[in-house]
C-alpha cells in the first residue's frame, strides 16, 4: 500500500483492544539490482524520536478512521450474532417445549410506545391556558397546551 508523508494511519493493535493513530513520518526508497523497494517509517504518539518501520507494527493498518470503524463494527455485529444464535440453539435444545415470542421490530415498538406516552401526557394536561412542560421520550422538553373544545 502507498502512503503519503504526514498521513495519519489507524492501527488496530493485536495485543490490545484499541485503535492507535500513527503518522507516516518518512518514506524510504531503496534501489537494488532486484528493483525498487519503498518502505515507511511511522511515529506513534507525541515523541518525534519514537519511530519504527511500518512492517514492524503488530496490528491491522487502516488509512482512515472510518475504515477502521466499519471493520470493527462489522466484527462486533458478527460476534454478537454468533453469541445470540448460540443461545437460541441452546434454548431449543434445553427447552424444546418453551414458547417463543415472535420477532418484533424494535423501532416499531419504540414508535408505538412513544406515541402512547405522548397521548397519555396530553390527556393529563390541565385545561387552562397555562402551558405545561413535559419531557419527551428522547429526553427533550416541550411545552404543551390543552386544546379547548368548542
Description:
It contains two helices and seven strands, in the order βββββααββ. It has 150 residues and is an alpha+beta fold. The protein folds into two domains: 8-63; 65-119, no CATH class. The chain is elongated.
Provide a short characterization of the protein structure.
It contains two helices and seven strands. With 150 residues, it is of the alpha+beta class. The mean pLDDT is 83.
Q: Largest beta sheet: what is the strand line-up?
A: 4-3-2-1-5
Number of strands: 7
Computed over alpha carbons, the radius of gyration is: 29 Å
Low-confidence stretches: none
Give helix % range.
Answer: 25-40%
First-to-last CA distance: 73 Å
Strand content: 25-35%
Task: Write down the secondary-structure element order.
Answer: EEEEEHHEE
User: What is the number of independent domains?
Assistant: 2
Name the structural class: alpha+beta
Mean pLDDT: 83
How would the global form be characterised?
A: elongated
| Number of DSSP helical runs | 2
Largest sheet: 5 strands, antiparallel
